[in-house]
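Hey, resending since the last one bounced:
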Amino acid sequence: MENFTYHNPVKIVFGKGMIAELPKLVPAAARVLLTYGGGSIKRNGVYDQVAAALKGRTLTEFGGIEANPSYETLMRAVEQARRDGCDFLLAVGGGSVIDGTKFIAAALPWTAGDPWRILSEQAPVPAAVPLGVVLTLPATGSEMNSTAVVSRLATHEKLFFSNEQVYPKFSILDPETTYSLPPRQVANGIVDTFVHVTEQYLTFPVGAPLQERQAEAILSTLVEAAPKVVATPRDYEVRANLMWCATHGLNGIIGLGVPQDWATHMIGHELTAFYGLDHGQTLAVILPGVLRAEAVSKQAMLVQYGRRVWGLTGSDPAALAEAAIAKTEAFFEAVGVPTHLSAYGVNAGEAAEKIRARLAERGQAFGEHADITPDRVAAIIRSRA
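The structure tokens again:
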């Protein structure tokens, strides 16, 4: 197992009715900016719960944060927060709203030029405005980590930053807030969580059986829960388990002391930046291609994954690895997320060249061995036509 240091300061408040705990969590004198997305929280009752809990507090709001939060929109939020003198942010929504709010938190006190530098240059973030979360869409794990992904519409870029200054102070996870989610968002969330886990698990063995079994537990729970949430969307226990899986998929625990990949995410970000695909859709497309391209170096973990998560049997490692990849692909299709670019009207050859050129210009290579070069990325994308 590799060396590691772990610290996670996020207070998790889990369960039905826990939005009512907000007055205990938000400082009484805070000037709060409530951030949200397209307005679903005003239709499903979550906004009313938040407003009731914070009645009498100084509260302004900023809505319209996109499913892939844009720098342009977030900078408007920064301007509003400065005008209103906001000193606490409350993100009410899914990972995009939380990610966007993390960027707002970092940009508000920023004085070192264009705040885009936080993403484009990974510039240090010396300070951030504190934030809290009310989660309504389990998927990204952003409610319990210090990472955010932001797009810039003007340049068709989608980049991330990670900084301990933007850990949420608390995150409220009420599974009942997810009952009204559209099936597409639920499916994307399942895929996103699943791939977060595989990025940290399907690499190579380093003597970390606890982390491996923790990862396998999350994957197995997702496989078990996925058909249930389709059949009984208002089943509290199913929703609770999906929400908790998503949080554990990217709160750092399963990635401690082990090599990590993240090639699927990096390639997927480019597909979103150029073509506007949902994040979960890009992951469902790209993961099988990455696994097949790296099947030899990942073989030991693919075999273990196939046996422990999918119950595969057999003695041929190569055949088991391929069967495990096929099972993964079929799972994504079964939850309703297509795994080929043609299903989204994207020309694989065109996408391959656009992304190859961009990555070559940046000098980027991905994977736990940093061997997925721009040319190999292009081949992976073409294989997903």
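The domain at 183-382 is CATH 1.20.1090.10 (Dehydroquinate synthase-like, alpha domain).

Sorry for the duplicate.
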